[in-house]
Task: structure prediction
Amino acid sequence: MRYMIKQLVLMLLVATLMNSCTLEPSKQLNDVASDHIRINQLGFYPKSAKQFVVADTLVAGFEVMDMKFNKVYEGKLSDKGIWKASGERVLMGDFHALKTPGTYYLVIDKKLKSHPFQITDGLYKEALQAAVKSYYFQRASMAIEETYGGIYKRAAGHYDMACSIHPGANSDLRSLDAPGGWYDAGDYGKYVGNASLSTGQMLLLLEQYPNVIPDKGLNIPESGNGISDLWDELRYELDWILRMQDKDGGVFHKLTARNFSGFVMPENYNLERLIIGKGTAATLNFSAVLAQASRLYKEINQEWAKKAITASERAWKWARTHESIAFNNPSDVVTGEYGDDYFQDDLYWAAAELFLATGKEKYLEYLQENGQLYQHQLTNSWKFFVRNNAFHSLLENADQLPDEYAHQLKQGHLHLADSILVAITSNPYGIALERFEWGSNSDILNQAVILCMAHRISGDEKYLEGAEKINDYIFGKNATAYCFLTGFGSERVMFPHHRPSGSDGIDDPVPGFIIGGPNHDRQDKNQVSYSSPYPAKAYEDVEESYASNEVCLNWNAPAVYVMGYLENNR
Ligand code: G3I
Ligand code: 9MR
Result:
């Protein structure tokens, strides 16, 4: 044993000496990872493009080292110029030829080193599981037990029984029981539109890869029931969505208090919860996601699927006779608005899902008579992106469409994906985003969803690579140097605007959340002092920053889709 220790010490000494011998004395390798180097902090699949960025320091070459200090790759950096959005001079390095699995780090000009990263299969396996499990941690009306939640166990709150209906909702009901579902975000509200959009995006992943998260894959209460744990988690939300329908078929907009609560745990929340608003967008989103779920659920639970499709068709009927009821917060309510006064996309998504679920001609006719622009609308994804949910479901089931219509959709999609690739190529960070608004991380992840779908319908690798580059940004190759998924990476988000994370007394935030990301509009600037004037750096890891550091269902959902897609295609 003593001999082995001696040998080990000797090997370490030699390795350290060899390492320092290659450095000029004045340029000793700094032991701390440099935040000038921006790289996916998880790493890369063996087959991936492998790019990173060095910002704001003039250097020429880089080396990739393994953990035994062996140089395994050497390359030059190319100057990409100044990026207006971050104010930085950006240099880019590329080592796609390195494919050997292992743990590595970068050394730049023999003086700066990066965080370690891996080249490995199953790169996003754990991150994907955590990103799905974060929905479990958002469950309302039930306790998170230690068996499933570990240190993040907590008591139940928000039973949401007999909630009064706010007068603005225009209902004959006086109250409604609407327990369950997920909290929307860092707040404890539950909003039908955003819930439907997010659930719909993850249902697409399940349709494509039913076993992406197998039974027992998440360790949640339903694990072991023989059904994929992702199904089980989505079902928790779908059951809540189902409860939000009024007697006349219309669907309520949200369930929140009049105000946001303080940073308290669910069991200490004491504001009155109300059912607020009833409108066209919520009703159509409800109709769409329940039709989608009923189609996919048929084999698993016929009875549930029947209930879902019946509710969905009733909602569609209501919406057709109430085609433009926009939601705005009543004057005594300040919780999230998710305002939406543009309904064409919502109608289109509902018609698409209803056609695929029922095969009824009238829905196809609606689609053909009301074609939607094939364009990617950044920001406010709950408002416009639902159109893409429709496109994605239709493309996935193109064999059920008339040939000409299917062809048009495919061309439209590839054209859009190509334009995203062009933007990626001309951006120094390799992303297709120049404007950073509230939830910018989801804007960019939604572009990756489009690229994955383009890969799915064309088989062309270039789209998959584009999606990977976008994920590199999320996991650390960005102007803030943070890894934007809580609990992952070397430069971690520690203080998300998330009420349980901020009040549970545990240092580390609940893992698996994508935070909103840089937001040039800085709507929280009265509480938060931003250290950089640049849009791509308008991010602060402080709890007060709801405009840059909150978590949200519709920001996680595209991350789940993209990681699930990559895990199945790399
Ligand atoms: O798009 C416009 C842009 O053209 C304009 O220049 C800019 C100037 O202010 O505003 C841009 O719109 C902003 C929009 O986000 C962009 O997505 C709005 O100002 C901004 O108010 C809006 O913020 C929304 C926020 O709620 C406040 O309503 C976020 O998108 C939305 O994601 C967020 O959602 C909240 C829920 O309400 C409550 N739960 C948490 C959730 C996440 O923060
Ligand atoms: O905490 C709230 C967050 O969950 C919401 O997404 C956000 C949306 O407007 O609002 C936050 O609440 C802030 C409020 O809007 C303004 N005053 C400060 C509140 C946070 O401390």
Summary: The domain at 28-119 is CATH 2.60.40.10 (Immunoglobulin-like). The longest helix spans residues 403-425.
